[in-house]
Amino acid sequence: MVYGLHPDPAAWRDGDIDQDAERAARVLAWARDAEEELAAIVGEGEAGDGRVRVTTTADGLVREVVFAPRATRADSRTLAEELLLAVGRAQDDAERKARDLVAGALGEILPAGAPGPETVEEECRRLLRCFTRP
């Protein structure tokens, strides 16, 4: 099997390309089906000892902000900082849940030793930097 990001075609065996194409088709089919699962992900974050609670989508969009009654005692700057912290925590939580979902699904589809989602994402970023103008 060709597992690395820089495969050597001389090392390929009969059937490797067919197996990899089949796996790629399964990954694409999962990606189409996973849209609903990803859309259902909710990240949660809080700050200020629970004064501010936020929920976000997997895309990082804020769905809900809840201020506890005692939040009104904080000055506006503190409240704003707590809100930003809670949003960041909720977004991090949603991103972690999305990554876990993708990693779990790909772990079932891809063979042992295949690059994980983080490796593929970093390689894509590296490749895209080649097209970024200075």
TrEMBL record:
<dbReference type="GO" id="GO:0003677">
    <property type="term" value="F:DNA binding"/>
</dbReference>
<protein>
    <submittedName>
        <fullName>DNA-binding protein YbaB</fullName>
    </submittedName>
</protein>
<dbReference type="InterPro" id="IPR036894">
    <property type="entry name" value="YbaB-like_sf"/>
</dbReference>
<dbReference type="Pfam" id="PF02575">
    <property type="entry name" value="YbaB_DNA_bd"/>
</dbReference>
<keyword id="KW-0238">DNA-binding</keyword>
<dbReference type="InterPro" id="IPR004401">
    <property type="entry name" value="YbaB/EbfC"/>
</dbReference>
